[in-house]
Write a structure and sequence with these properties.
Number of domains: 1
Distance between the termini: 5 Å
Radius of gyration: 15 Å
Number of helices: 3
CATH architecture: 4-Layer Sandwich
Shape: globular
CATH class: Alpha Beta
Strand content: 15-25%
CATH topology: Phosphatase 2c, domain 1
């Protein structure tokens, strides 16, 4: 699979960027993931980073061969960071929960699968030769 990755982020009027983006790939699949750190919440950048890490680690563990169910793969990491958010919050005695909205795309066998529970629309423009 041939691909190139380009990314950009606009922080708006915030002091720092709370959004994160990453990609991971194997011989058979390409994972693209975004996490919106939800700027109105404390430590949004931490939540976004934890979300990205969860997707990339999951991909690394499961993508040694073609994923049996790419759509299912994308839904699981969307739910997992909640426990990490809770632990981070409790160890720092934070009053509010961490929040991040993930959006994931997986390309395998010439097909694109997505998990975008976010309320925002993310545009993914893909040209792949598989």
């Amino acid at each position: 699979m041939n691909f190139s990755i380009h990314q950009a982020s606009h922080i708006g009027n915030r002091k720092y960027n709370q959004d994160r983006a990453a990609y991971a790939y194997s011989n058979d699949a390409l994972l693209l993931v975004l996490a919106d750190g939800m700027g109105g919440h404390l430590h949004g950048e931490v939540a976004a980073g934890m979300t990205i890490d969860t997707f990339v680690e999951s991909f690394g563990q499961q993508a040694q061969s073609p994923l049996a169910d790419p759509q299912l793969f994308l839904t699981i990491p969307c739910a997992v960071p909640t426990s990490a958010f809770w632990r981070f919050r409790m160890t720092r005695s934070l009053a509010k929960a961490l929040r991040a909205r993930p959006a994931g795309v997986l390309i395998q066998d010439g097909k694109m699968f997505s998990a975008m529970p976010a309320t925002r629309v993310f545009m993914c423009c893909v040209t792949a030769r598989c």
